[in-house]
Amino acid sequence: MSRPMSRPMSRPMSRDVYEYAxxxxxxxxxxxxxxxxxxxxYCQPRxxxxxxxxxxxxxxxxxxxxxxxxxxxxxxxxxxxxxxxxCGPLAGEPLGGRFRWLTAPRSTIVQAGPVHAxxxxxxxxxxxxxxxxxxxx
Length: 137
What we know:
alpha+beta; 31% helix; globular
């Protein structure tokens, strides 16, 4: 009787906890209607904080025909800049502090949604996956 061939043991990839929030645009805060326009991802074990944004002007104007598209784009870009090394007043803050500041509740047109968690072996790939799933149409 022959024995089944054994497979080489594969090492599981190391996965780390990450937190993320969807960046939302709510042009008329009093109405509560919103569109997703980005994702903010923080992974402490990997010393990673990054935002990816993308605004669909047509969707924004469907909620508010008078929306300031350029102003909203600038506000979204601020999320990306706040994650970088040269981010003005946040430059001295640890990444976790920046993430908490960026996800703090606000009553503004551009705001972060609730924070969620997951596991990832690659924060860049996870950010792209979340962006495609939650923001892109």
